[in-house]
Amino acid sequence: MSQRRWALAAAIGLLAISAPALVGCAKGKGEAAAKEISIFLWVRPEELDVNQRLKAEFERTHPGLSVKIINDPASQAMAKLKTLIAGGEAPDVMSLHGAFFVPLADQGALEDLGPFVAADADVNVSDFYPGLLELCKYNGKLYSLPRYTSVYALLYNRNTFKAAGEAFPTQGKTWDWPEFVRVARALTKDLDGDGNTDQYGCAIDFTGARVYPWVWQNGGELVTPDRKQVTLDTPEVRGALQFLVDLKQVYHVTPSVVQLQNREGIDYFKRQRVAMYQSGPWDVQELKSIKDFEWDVAPLPKGKKAATLLGDENYAISSRSQHKQEAWELLKFLLSADSQRRMALDLGKMPSRRSVAEKEFLQSDPSHDLRVFVDAIGYAVIPPNLPDWEEIGTAFNGELELMWAGSVSVAQGCRDTQEKINGILARHLQGL
Asked: Percent of the chain having pLDDT more than 90?
């Protein structure tokens, strides 16, 4: 997802970085101790470094406040955050993966930001993409604000396309599912003649939200309008999932192991084992280090229509914070246009503010077609994030894994998944 998904971060442990000020210790005569506010992040070292610089700037421009950064870049960062909240140690400000926002809002763990926005014209929420703001609401209230924009597209190896004599993929009438299969087959090769595939045409992570765009492209829906039930056992959903499974089981154009593996797909792409990989702007910074081949960005091929997923990462304030106004000042600072420009130019992060996404983000890497990501917002669909997401996600991914392995048919898997998830949702509605 910021599609960038929390599970993509490398598991390198928990870091707690406190502000340089000795909070609570005696200061010079007449000098008050700084008030400390905490923020929870789940970022890799290069992004942590930028956040450290933003922290220093915030403390300089907000005398009397210091910021404690709690950073957990591991794949279980959201579980760590839930533990802190359950233990009464919720950070004042927290960065949330989009799928975990709704459960926390449903539990009353997040502060309603509507009154802060209404009282503070400086935040300029009209600059955020409207769809992202919708993702930040629950039961009509604004419980967070968007940090990044996430959309799915295709990363592709330009050298591989050139060698095969294939035109680069672009959004148009001909870039559709049949053409995608044709190109993927043309790019799947045994390069050394040993009978084994050395280069696959594509890599599809058949997991979670990564299958959503294909469902929507095929005219399918994932939930009922009232979001009380999922609608997975339909011809449209079955057709989309069957198309993806056929890439592996019928056409043999994708590695069989690329399923539920956090970094395996992007590693295959970097090692030139696959020519096309479904991903998003969160991987751009990592790919800039590639020297062995040229890569670029293309839209996902369209089915009955063009569609991709609109995802985000959110900043929220704990409902139990003792420093809510100060936490709001930090959140507002981190989501300002200036801070988002820093993230776009230094890290290639796709901003949630239109003014920055359509200028500095595009300027951050003119050698690659980042406009594909920006244009995708026009046909991106808001995902059905639901309460009890962890249990639902486990059930969904478990069935997807069986389908991908060929242990159950797509038809049977869709029936089983719908039954399991609707049972979970029914228990939630009954308060069990």
From this structure: 77
